[in-house]
Write a structure and sequence with these properties.
three-stranded antiparallel beta sheet, alpha/beta
């Protein structure tokens, strides 16, 4: 019996950070990536420069149309991803331009490692997406080579590509930083990443650590360690993994001026606020909103209290 090809469309699934998502896998049959990340759950694979197996764009368009026509309930986003790196797909621009007309208000999202943003054709395609999420696990070269195991080790070219894309992009640019204990969690690497992300109008930083079985030995950070790392990203909207009950019990008690100072340094997610603020401090949020000293900013499906 012939082996069936794996589906290119999957879900919908519920994403805490982006809402109800229908996924599209541009490389469903095998891992095709220019990284071989230490934390990847897809298994080890030699990083490649370009896709070896390319699905016809017509096949993808038809599969997406059929899936959208058969949805039982509405979705928030259509997420373009890959069993590897989606920007390696050579027909990405044609794909996104072809499917946008029949999405009917559904936002488009791509999950990328950010390594090819310097390529003009990739930039053209990415400009069409409502949300672009890219990974930046390391800028320190030694840490970059250890955590991402890339095909090309030219981190400066990668950074220049992300920077140049950010200057022309009109949508929401979301950065993901995944930290491995003892690999890329040094103060030097965190400062380099944070300083870079502050240059490029990052809408949100998703800071995380290992939460699934990985390809290599990759020790995770504790919740407290991850929280300390988040302090390097002062001034940016930082989304942390949902806190455990034990972590949530560590409530902050502060006056209204202290709370405003806290939010000015680090925007506070609406999801996190009731978990870390005691009842009196939580009430101050409404006062600050009424006095227009803070505002609510929405990135994906997450909301943040931000100072003006």
């Amino acid at each position: 019996m012939a082996k069936e090809n794996p589906p290119v469309v999957f879900g919908p699934v519920l994403s805490r950070r982006f809402g109800k998502s229908l996924g599209v896998d541009l490389s469903p049959s095998k891992k095709q990536c220019n990284y071989n990340c230490i934390y990847c759950e897809l298994g080890k694979a030699k990083p490649i420069e370009r896709m070896e197996e390319v699905i016809k764009v017509e096949t993808l368009i038809n599969a997406i149309q059929n899936a959208l026509n058969n949805l039982a309930t509405p979705i928030d986003v259509l997420t373009i991803t890959a069993n590897g790196e989606p920007t390696l797909y050579p027909h990405l621009l044609e794909l996104i331009q072809s499917i946008k007309p029949f999405l009917k208000g559904v936002k488009t999202l791509i999950l990328s490692n950010g390594s090819l943003f310097y390529e003009p054709k990739v930039q053209q395609a990415l400009k069409e997406f409502d949300i672009v999420k890219f990974s930046l696990d390391a800028i320190d070269l030694k840490a970059f080579e250890r955590v991402d195991k890339p095909y090309s080790k030219d981190i400066n070219k990668i950074l220049e590509g992300i920077l140049s894309f950010s200057q022309i992009y009109q949508g929401q640019l979301v950065a993901e930083v995944l930290l491995i204990k003892g690999v890329n969690d040094s103060a030097n690497n965190l400062k380099l990443i944070a300083d870079f992300l502050k240059k490029i109008n990052t809408a949100r930083v998703d800071l995380s650590t290992i939460d699934r079985p990985s390809s290599f030995k990759a020790p995770k950070l504790s919740e407290d360690e991850l929280l300390k790392c988040s302090l390097f990203f002062e001034g940016l909207c930082v989304s942390l993994p949902k806190r455990s009950i034990a972590q949530a019990k560590k409530l902050i008690s502060c006056g209204i001026d202290e709370l405003l100072a806290l939010i000015s340094r680090r925007p506070l997610s609406a999801e996190e606020a009731p978990l870390i603020l005691d009842p009196n401090a939580f009430k101050h949020l409404e006062t600050l909103l009424n006095h227009k000293q803070i505002t609510i900013k929405k990135v994906g499906s997450l909301e943040f209290y931000c100072a003006f």
